Amino acid sequence: MIVPNHPLRSRLMTWAALLLAGCGGTSSSNFTITPPAPVLSTYSVLTYHNDNARDGVNNLEKVLTPVNVNAVQFGKIGFFAVDGKVDAQPLFLPSLQIANDTHNVLYVATEHDSLYALDADTGTVLWHASLLRTGETPSDDRGCSQVTPEIGITATPIIDPMAGSHGVIYLVAMSKDGSGHYFQRLYALDVTTGAEMPGSPVAIQATYPGSGDNSIGGSIVFDPAQYEERAGLLRLNNTIYLTWASHCDNRPYTGWIMGYDQTTLAQASVLNISPNGEGASIWQSGAGPAADSECNIYFLAANGTFDTSLDANGFPSQGDYGNAFMKLSTVGGKLAVADYFTMTNTLAESAADEDLGSGGAILLPDLQDASGTTRHLAVGAGKDQTIYVPNRDNMGKWHSFIDHIWQEIPSGLAGSEFATPAYFNGVVYYGAVGDVLRAFRITDATLSTSPVSQTIHSFPYPGATPSISANGTADGIVWVAENGSVAGLYAYDAANLAHELYDSNQSGSRDQFGAGNKFITPTVVNGKVYVGTTDGVAVFGLLH
Fold first, then answer.
1. Cα–Cα distance for residue pair 245/256, rounded to 1 Å
2. Mean pLDDT of 283-287
3. Is residue 2 in a domain?
4. In sequence order, what are the residues at sequence separation of 6 or more whose Cβ sits closer than 8 angstroms to the Cβ of residue 148?
5. Is the peptide bond between 462 and the residue preceding it cis, with omega within 30 degrees of 0?
6. What is the CA radius of gyration of the chain?
């Protein structure tokens, strides 16, 4: 274990203070330590898509390069079997002392309600925690094929290496008992032992004023059977934020966001963005909500009620924000809508299930426009194939005749977006359904209206969420996982997507790893690539 005065603990504390003080919304999750052996890493992956900007970049990858990632030198080097589907992105902590030895640790959550701490280099199980209580099983699929045949831990957990004595991992697990009661619980586990922290778990319960779906006596009620925690968890200012998705579009459901004190696990804040309507859930194909350095939260809401009757400030009069690009404030520890954008034809899109919320959003770094003004932008896309780029300082709201938004690119994608883009070196990368992977360069705080490069290969449903490895701004590689009866891992030169470096099916069966799993985000760290599958994690690296 890492005792409180251990030198590695001190380095973790220093790094985490830099990343997590205030909101730390766009900081990269990396730090430098002096490892006790060359195999140990200097980079961690603590949250979905690497940081709270959700840009998907590991810019401290010094092993994998466009020179050595090829079918001769690179391939599958292992498979770590677990007890269920791996829908959450695997997380990674380096140089952690467990049982008097030092390990790089991979954290793998399953739909069988298990969390594994694995030696990231050997696959050895360091500890395994079942989140099922006595007499419980994972939830059935609730009549929805999105997550099937069972629902356990779907959302990517989050790690705070400063919490507790050794660091804490937070996650949400769904289960049911023999009487047909369903449970959603927030857990906090010690990263070195899997032991539950004081106050863990807490059952998820909530009410909110409104007359919408599942309302009783002027309040809507959170029913754990009707929801799934699909979007990755978010941590801001010692608060763990949860956002809730429906099972398909099976009503009743509304758009819940909840904050929990990460030390006590007490519920700190609740907001519902369709309290007098229905829908507006937050699933984003697994993407976690993004957050900026001012403690604002951003996400894409799915189809649902939107009030075109606006108040004097341009906000929906009944508080219903279906199918919108949302910005929430967390001032004073309270959740509130700070701003939003939705397109002119939002009602038609929701009616056609053509919602914005099928994709995830990322935040771009500060950019200078042609006049030298600094712009704070976000990027998101959904099923209508349009790329939306709102100004985070003035999102645009709703207007009946024209969209008021910094930039939008109609038909920027050739398919619906069920994934999350990535950002690296002034380029945004998108992989829509049935589409090629596309790269859009940013100039003067504006995306190119057509891709500057694209892959030859196209990706079937649900498209592809890119992860990027690089050494600073050099040696950029774009990694994507492909769904299908035979899954695939692909690697492309970030500077030119037409240059495919590797794919796992080009060497026959040598590197294949079974059937694909939806919405998978590769984790790239320490010279290895980890890909969640239907029954484990496939591990790729150099073949020597």
1. 8
2. 97
3. no
4. 141
5. yes
6. 22
Residues pairing with 385 in the sheet: none
Backbone φ and ψ of 160, nearest 5°? -115, 105
5 token code pair: 């005065």
- % the chain with pLDDT above 70: 92
Its domain, for residue 365, covers 7-542
Q: What is the pLDDT of residue 23?
A: 62
Does residue 488 lie in a domain region? yes
- Closest C-alpha to 137, from 189, 182, 200, 203: 182
Does 536 fall in a domain?
Answer: yes
Query: What DSSP character marks residue 16?
Result: H
Looking up residue 306, the CATH number of its domain turns out to be: 2.140.10.10
Structure tokens at 24: 């730390």
Which helix or strand (DSSP H or E) is residue 356 part of?
A: none
User: Is residue 1 one of the residues assigned to a domain?
Assistant: no
- Residues whose CB is less than 8 angstroms from the CB of residue 54 and which lie 6 or more positions away in sequence, other chains included: 48, 287, 288, 290, 360, 361, 362, 363, 420
In the chain, how many domains are there? 1
Q: pTM for this structure?
A: 0.94
Which residues are registered as beta bridge partners of 532?
537
Instruction: Pick the closest to residue 46 from 285, 219, 269, 234 (CA basis).
Output: 234
Q: Please choose, from the candidates 240, 244, 202, the residue with its C-alpha nearest in 3D space to the C-alpha of residue 223.
A: 244
Q: Among 476, 483, 544, 532, which residue's Cα sits nearest to residue 106?
A: 532
